[in-house]
Design brief:
Elements (H helix, E strand, L loop, with lengths): L2 H42 L22
Length: 66
């Protein structure tokens, strides 16, 4: 591989990784806004904030299996 090809491969790899990070951050922020909106609606319906369920989706600890 020539030096130019190495620079191109490294540059494209960097751009792809950067794009993936930007997309992931946008998805996370969108999910955070959605969770906040659901929580606010839940409280607005007269629920007690201290008794609120976990407003998130995705993998994590699941309780009760055992």
């Amino acid at each position: 591989m020539t030096a130019v090809q190495v620079v191109i491969v490294v540059g494209v790899t960097f751009l792809v990784i950067t794009a993936m990070v930007v997309v992931a951050n946008r998805v996370i922020e969108s999910e955070r806004r959605t969770m906040q909106r659901i929580r606010e609606e839940w409280i607005a319906r007269g629920r007690i904030p201290e008794e609120e369920p976990k407003f998130y989706s995705g993998s994590g600890e699941s309780g009760g299996a055992g």
